[in-house]
Each structure stands twice: as structure tokens, then as C-alpha cells.
What we know:
By secondary structure, this protein is mostly beta strands.
Amino acid sequence: MIFCTSWVLNSLRPIITITDYLHPQNFGLCSSFDDEGSPSQKKTLIREGVLRSFMRDSFTGDSTGNGMRRNSTDAQNIYNSAVSTKPMNMIVSPGRYSVDGITAQTDNGILVEKFAWPEADPLTGRFGLEIRCGYIVRKGKITGTVNNALMTGNMIDLLGSIEFIGNDLENLGCVTVPTMSFSGAELVGN
């Protein structure tokens, strides 16, 4: 669940931490080695809002164990594509707010429950996400629904405009994320 809002917060910003590592309790691509035979290792990609590391396969540099030839839903040794850099188990650390708490502090925003057909450019950070199920939030209350709209923006910019990080976690294949509130995305549709 991702929360998109245009609510403006004071100068306090939550600190985001993102790691990628093999963890037996997460689904993702649980393997001691990537599809190139490099050992997987824990990587702190962003710590307290500061970029600390990158994921690499053997083509892009010293491998960090992220060279994959399959998707997170594929069985091991099912190779469907050329090697590319992918997370094994990317985890955004949870924050301290409940979804209800984030909603209550939102003046004007949209609570997105389901996205479909995400498209993202890994080089520029630009994305387009089709909203299948969303709710309009006004002055801390859900006042309506959003169906079949498109949210667009730049992921790099949104990382800098996070307002709240939820205390929940949802596993989405090889990525586990909490509810997040941010500003700066554009909504197109009804």
C-alpha cells in the first residue's frame, strides 16, 4: 500500500533506510548466490536518507550478488532473460505511523490500495502507475474513490519528499515496503 498526498509537512522529514539482503522470512529471490554464481550479500542501499551503495551484476562492476536471469516469482534455475541487476530482497524499513494515523494527518491526498501495470525507467526514475483502487482523503477523512487513474512522477524526487513512513510491511515479490506518504506525484484521470 502506498499513500500519495499533497499535504505539506513542516521541516521534519522521516529518515528512509533501504537494504537488500537474503532473508529466509522474505519471499523474493532467496538464494545464497545470484544467477551468475556470485554470493549474495547484505547491502545497505540508503541509510537514514543518504545513498550508501549500489546493486551490481558482474557486467556493471564488482558483483554484489544481484545478477539475475529470472523474476522473483520464477523457480530457481528457470532462466527467462539475459542477466540484469535486480534486488534479491529489497526492504524499506518501517516507520512509526499506522495507516489510520497517516490518513488522519493528511489534508488533501489519495490513499492507493492497488497499482496495476507499473512502468518505470531505471535510468531516469520516471514512472507511470495505473491506480486500480484508491481513496480520496480530505482533512483526514476518506471522502471518495479513485478508479482507473494514472499516477506519474519521478521516484528519485519522491524519495526526497517522503512525509510519513508506516509501521506496516507488505511483501511485493522481491520488494517489501511499508505504507509511505509523499508529495510531488501527478494524478491523471478520474
